C-alpha cells in the first residue's frame, strides 16, 4: 500500500467517530446500522447489545461492509471509506477493558460523569474487533466517483 494512501485512510478513520456497518441476517438480507467506534490504526472496535440483531448476525457470519464518511453540501467534496472486513468477537478481558478505556477519548465532548458516558463492563456488551480486508478510498476531489482500492 502506498504510504500517502495509508495516511489518508488513517486520517479518515481517526477524524470520524461513527460508521455504518452492514451485517448479514439469517435470511440473507443485509442489515445496515450506525455504530460508534474506536480504533488503533486500521483496527476498529465497536460494541453493541448482547442480544442485538448485529451480535446475532455476526455469530453466524463474520463478514461485514462498512462505510465511514460525513455529510457535505458539495458533491465534489465527498471523501470517505468503504470496507470489506471481518469481525472477531472480543473475549479477552484485557483487550475489552483497553477498548472501553478508549471510548471516552474518542468522545471528549460528552458530558463527564453522565449516565450517557457510563462505560459498561466487558460482560455487559458484545464487543467486536473489525479487521479490514479491502478498503475503497473515496475522494471526489480527484474526480466524480474517484476510488482507490487497497487490499490489506
3D architecture notes:
- With 152 residues, the chain is an alpha+beta fold.
- It has one domain: Pnp Oxidase, Chain A, CATH 2.30.110.10.
- Helices cover 23% and strands 39% of the residues.
- The chain contains three helices and eight strands; from the N terminus they run αββββαββαββ.
- Strands 1, 2, 3, 4, 5, 6, 7 and 8 form an eight-stranded antiparallel sheet that branches.
- The N and C termini lie close together (8 Å).
- The model has no long low-confidence stretch (mean pLDDT 92).
In short:
The protein is α+β, with helices and mostly antiparallel strands and 152 residues long. Helix content is 23%, strand content 39%.
User: Whole-Å distance between the termini?
Assistant: 8 Å
Overall helicity: 10-25%
Averaged pLDDT: 92
What is the CATH superfamily label?
Answer: Electron Transport, Fmn-binding Protein, Chain A
Q: Which geometry do the CA atoms define?
A: globular
Using only C-alpha atoms, the radius of gyration works out to 16 Å
Q: What is the total tally of β strands? A: 8
Low-confidence stretches: none
> Could you state the oligomeric state of the chains shown?
single chain
Helices, strands, pairings?
Layout: H1 3-15, E1 18-24, E2 30-36, E3 38-40, E4 43-48, H2 53-60, E5 63-69, E6 79-89, H3 93-106, E7 126-139, E8 147-151
Antiparallel strand pairs: 1-2, 1-5, 3-4, 4-7, 5-6, 6-7, 7-8
Provide tags for this entry.
alpha+beta; Pnp Oxidase, Chain A; 8-stranded antiparallel sheet; globular
Amino acid at each position: 500500500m502506498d504510504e500517502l494512501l495509508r495516511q489518508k485512510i488513517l486520517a479518515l478513520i481517526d477524524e470520524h467517530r461513527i460508521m455504518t456497518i452492514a451485517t448479514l441476517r439469517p435470511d440473507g438480507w443485509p442489515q445496515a446500522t450506525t455504530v460508534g467506534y474506536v480504533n488503533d490504526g486500521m483496527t476498529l472496535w465497536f460494541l453493541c447489545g448482547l442480544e442485538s440483531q448485529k451480535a446475532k448476525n455476526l455469530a453466524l457470519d463474520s463478514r461485514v461492509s462498512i462505510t465511514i464518511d460525513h455529510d457535505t453540501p458539495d458533491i465534489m467534496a465527498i471523501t470517505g471509506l468503504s470496507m470489506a472486513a471481518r469481525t472477531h468477537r472480543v473475549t479477552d478481558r484485557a483487550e475489552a477493558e483497553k477498548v472501553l478505556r478508549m471510548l471516552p477519548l474518542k468522545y471528549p465532548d460528552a458530558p463527564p460523569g453522565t449516565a450517557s458516558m457510563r462505560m459498561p463492563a466487558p460482560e455487559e456488551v458484545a464487543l467486536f474487533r473489525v479487521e479490514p480486508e479491502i478498503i475503497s478510498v473515496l475522494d471526489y476531489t480527484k474526480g466524480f466517483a474517484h476510488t482507490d482500492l487497497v487490499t490489506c
